[in-house]
Amino acid sequence: MPIKILIRSLFINTISTNRFLLIPSLHLLSFVSKANRSFLFNVDRNPVLKAVLKKTMYNQFCAGETEKETKTCVRQLKDLGFRGVILTYAKETVLDNKTSVFHHSNGVDGLSSSEGVEAKFDNNIEDWRIGTLKTLDLIDEGDILAIKMSGAGPSVVDAFTKGKLPPQQMLDTLDEIAITCKERRIQIIVDAESQHFQKGIACTTLELMRKFNHAGFAVIYNTYQAYLKGTPAVLAQHLAEASKNGFTLGLKLVRGAYILSEDRSLIHDTKKNTDDAYNGIAYGALCQHIGDFGGDGPGAQPFPSVNLFLASHNRESVLTAHRLHRQRLIARLPTVPVAFGQLQGMSDEVSFSLLREHGEAENPPDVFKCSTWGSMGECVGYLVRRAVENRDAVLRTNDEYTALKSEAKRRLRSLLYV
Ligand SMILES: Cc1cc2nc3c(=O)[nH]c(=O)nc-3n(C[C@H](O)[C@H](O)[C@H](O)COP(=O)(O)OP(=O)(O)OC[C@H]3O[C@@H](n4cnc5c(N)ncnc54)[C@H](O)[C@@H]3O)c2cc1C
User: Fold this and answer.
1) Is there an atom of ligand 1 within 6 Å of 371 CB?
2) What is the CATH number that goes with domain 77-394?
3) Which of 125, 189, 252, 392 is geometrically suited to a Cys-Cys bond with 146, CB 3.0 to 4.6 A?
């Protein structure tokens, strides 16, 4: 780890391991993330505020404001030993469920209907298309593009809210992106979002998987949120589709990020239930046995082709899954390909532990760092949302903090010795 990154990580971890520093910092970040602040608190206009945030939070968690900065960061992450990056564009559309107003991370708000949107050509979809293709230009073969479909604006979200496929322009855009990715051997992860739109997102992703995921290789991954009580039923339906139509199911598993805004009754009652659900699905996929799929009882069906992606900062979940996968490979038992992902700047200790988990004759597991790129204003909004989603992991960074401190002491001692 270069010295600059070590010092920055120490600084950020000092804040994040201390509740009394972390909570006010998040409030401050949330305050400056609102676009129409006065000059003093506007991250895009106040150069001093911008410089401080850039050297600290931004560089720790984001890839870059420009294409050049982003490419450099992607290369640095790979030099640290990661298999690749998952890159996403920071511009997001966030629907305020209470007011039905969209907040764009660039500060321009709009109403949640297709009113005013040109029926033939939707500029929001076009902007999203251009941003996504630009993101694609910044990564290489073996990397992953993450997309948040609601970012394409009101007409797409309207369709998703009704549980429908998005307008044809969006379907054409998704086809164009998937064809380009397939040619360049780049995979696409479709993020799971709030339950308000998730049915439409899952339908759209299923169609993409049917079209593009063949010969055991998932170009497209759908995201399954383990904290939802309804996820096993959705997964069983998608496994049945994959089995019937002979495509590879891209199964990206997360716990779920919308616990604060989602209807609480849809989510498991306790954290332990969510943990059990997450670990149960990961175990089932790795052993090729989920429900009737891969079983041998009455009603059993063959287990379809699956590519598994475990996105989590939970050390126990990812290390247990990796060890199970390795044991099954050694014992020549059936299993599925698996990769792992954590956010850039978070749970590095978990990511590096995974990378170290291999014998002399084996390759390290496929570990990806997920990062975002975009202007300071766009990224600050993104950072606030990720910090809230991952607050359990953020406050659980003691192991990482201890490791960073001992590494800093070791380097200081060797410097004094010289
Ligand atoms: C690479 C990557 C991609 C991601 N993509 C998505 C995505 O597309 N969509 C999405 O929704 N999220 C996504 N997330 C976020 C993810 O869903 C989690 O919010 C986050 O990773 C924290 O969970 P964890 O597995 O790291 O582990 P932990 O920190 O052990 O678990 C925290 C999670 O447990 C659950 N939980 C906490 N308290 C309770 C409770 N009382 N009852 C029930 N459940 C509880 C919540 O889901 C919470 O986020 C992504 C995360 C990563 C690292």
Assistant:
1) no
2) 3.20.20.220
3) 189
